[in-house]
Design brief:
Elements (H helix, E strand, L loop, with lengths): L1 H11 L13 H134 L2 H22 L1
Length: 184
């Protein structure tokens, strides 16, 4: 400990110029040595340090420039993607609107065609009913006519005798003969 305090005390008492030698006091010589080393480093290392700093500065500037270019490219790609997104959203909306209107149109077409088909079926049904009615009426007429004919034949056969029958046949033959002469 005494050496340490002696070193501080010895700093106050610098010897005057007159002798040259090695100072073995570390605390007294350390700041001088450090200042000499720093001076030499600054003098000789100034160029190297300046080059290192310039290279580092250039690398940082290049990195910033590249980052800005990448950022610009990313912003450009982002804008393009947003534009594509807007376009796709508009197309999706248009498809949705067109799809809904197409569905509504198809629905109306289907309803209209169903109504037309129902009308046609109703017409076919009415025609079939009318046809069946006419057929039933014709069948009834034929039966009535057959029954009336059978009744008339029965009445004629019971009322006509042979002589009246022969006279009716002769009169009819005479009428056909007269008609034939008129035609010829």
């Amino acid at each position: 400990m005494k050496n340490v305090t002696d070193s501080f005390v010895s700093l106050v008492h610098w010897p005057f110029a007159g002798s040259f030698g090695f100072n073995t006091d570390i605390l007294a010589t350390n700041p001088i040595n450090l200042s000499v080393v720093l001076g030499v480093l600054i003098f000789f290392g100034k160029g190297v340090l300046s080059d290192l700093l310039d290279n580092r500065k250039l690398r940082i500037l290049n990195t910033i420039r590249n980052s800005e270019e990448l950022q610009g490219g990313a912003i450009e790609r982002l804008e393009k993607a947003r534009a594509r997104l807007r376009k796709v959203e508009m197309e999706a909306d248009q498809f949705r609107v067109n799809g809904y209107s197409g569905i509504e149109r198809e629905k109306l077409n289907l309803i209209n065609s169903t109504y037309k088909t129902l009308e046609q079926l109703e017409n076919y049904k009415n025609e079939t009913i009318h046809f069946e009615q006419q057929r039933a009426i014709n069948q009834v007429r034929q039966r009535v006519f057959q029954q009336a004919l059978q009744g008339a034949l029965g009445t004629l056969n019971s009322c006509l005798n042979k002589e009246l029958h022969l006279r009716t046949i002769s009169a009819n033959i005479g009428m056909f003969g007269a008609m034939k002469e008129i035609i010829d």
